[in-house]
Amino acid sequence: MRKMLVTGGAGFIGSNFVKMILDRKSSNRVIVLDKLTYAGNIDNLRGYLSSPHLDFVRGDIGNAQLLDLLVPGVDIIYNFAAETHVDRSILEGGSFVRTDVMGTFTLLQKALEHKVPRFVQVSTDEVYGSIEKGRFLETDPIMPNSPYSASKSGADLLVRAFHKTYGLPVLITRSSNNYGPFQHPEKFIPLFITNALEGKELPLYGDGRNVRDWIFVDDNCRAIDLVGRRGKPGEVYNIGAGAEKENRYIARKILEFTGADSGLLKFVSDRPGHDRRYALNSAKVKALGWKTRTSFLKGLEKTVRWYSKNQRWWKKIKEGSFSEYYDRMYGERLDQAKNRKG
Ligand code: NAD
Ligand code: TYD
Q: Which residue, 10, 19, 23, 40, shows the most beta carbons closer than 10 Å to its own?
């Protein structure tokens, strides 16, 4: 029996990961530690909370006393917990530094103190910054451009330092943009799907030609699990599906799959510091035996179907404090887009 501590396990990727592990019906025990911020959602673990293999604890990764209770005896830590939305980091970066940097530092300290034999840091390709041509390698320098990616970079550097200085057996995964069921509707793909389903405008930043290397969430979860089991301590693993797409292409596909009016697409003023392109070379994780299973269009279709069928899940989120955030982030930009037209 392996005892796993999964932080951020009520978020998008973390909950998909936990459910994948529990679906395997092994004897593994999973402790989820999640603060349940606006992005965390206990509904993401519905149907699993009564499992004798799962313990859910609401709490902060920066709470050292709580970690003293949870960490002893743990075989592996997967650190998914983070503030994750670039746009919110532009509005207010403090919580990103507190959780992504300071929280990770506390977790590392406790992993070291309690001699945890493996620590997986779930990081992002955004730490590399933007790349015009080619694909990022794990050895490329870190050049973050947003308060979010800078905070995640701070965490990566601390994780590396704990390995070099204290010999903590760490592994870092840097995945590209994920999409799939249970992603918070603030993010690009679910925002556009749910807005299209509601007949609301789809706010495309800038010229809509920014490129992300999209990966279906299940593919990333399998890769993270593989790195946790077979990766080499001290190493970084890029995880990308090689599905580089322009945002405007995805927006049009979403309109097509939902059957929404193409007039809903609106070009709005750009995000400050908006990275133009992300692309990853994932040969290293492939050498561990991983490959993608879900192509981009299949994954997008599945995702559109999921959001169409699970409207209660996302309406509950969109009707809450999200609407204030939405007005702040998009209200003026959408008005400007209308005035430009008129
Ligand atoms: P998410 O925002 O959906 O979930 C984050 C979870 O962390 C939430 O459940 C939240 O309640 C929890 N959390 C936040 N602060 C916490 C704290 N201080 N203590 C405990 N829990 C806390 O994020 P996600 O998209 O699932 O991303 C998970 C991880 O993967 C993050 O580390 C992110 O940087 C990384 N990542 C995400 C993507 C992506 O496309 N979504 C891509 C690459 C890497
Ligand atoms: P996002 O989901 O925020 O992920 P990230 O910024 O971490 O890559 O955004 C993905 C892309 O979609 C990015 O180029 C910004 C763009 N985007 C829009 O055009 N409109 C939106 O409303 C959002 C949220 C994102």
A: 10
Q: Distance (Å, rounded) from C-alpha 17 to C-alpha 6?
A: 9
pLDDT of residue 89: 98
Residue 246: which H helix or E strand, with range?
A: strand 243-246
Distance 124 CA to ligand 2 centre (A): 14
86 lines ligand 2 (CB under 6 A): yes
Query: CB within 8 A of 221, min separation 6: which ones?
Result: 13, 16, 17, 20
Ligand nearest to the CA of 186: 2
* Beta strand pairing call for 3-7 and 29-34: parallel
Spatial contact of 64 and 38, defined as CB atoms under 8 Å apart:
no
Distances (CA, A) of 189 to 166, 247, 252: 40, 9, 11
Task: Tell which residue, 300, 327, 333, 314, has the closest CA to residue 39.
Answer: 314
pLDDT per residue over 197-212, tens digit each?
A: 999 999 999 999 999 9
**257-296, pLDDT tens digit by residue?**
999 999 999 999 999 999 999 999 999 999 999 999 999 9
Contacts of 203 (CB under 8 A, 6+ apart): 266, 268, 330, 333, 334, 337
Whole-model pTM: value is 0.98
- Is the sign of the CA dihedral 211, 78, 172, 112 positive or negative? positive
* Atom of ligand 1 at shortest range from CA of 13: 26
pLDDT band at 341 (very low <50, low <70, confident <90, very high): low
| Residue keyed to tokens 């793909």 | 189
Q: Is pLDDT at 150 greater than 70 in this prediction? A: yes
**Pocket lining: 188 vs ligand 2, CB cutoff 6 Å:** yes
Please state the rounded mean pLDDT for residues 315-334: 96
Tell me, using a 6 A CB cutoff, whether residue 303 lines ligand 2.
Answer: no
Atom of ligand 1 nearest to the CA of 8: 7
The finding on whether 205 has its CB within 6 A of some atom of ligand 2 is yes
For residue 231, which of 322, 118, 334, 312 has the smallest C-alpha distance? Answer: 118
Amino acid at position 4, single letter:
M
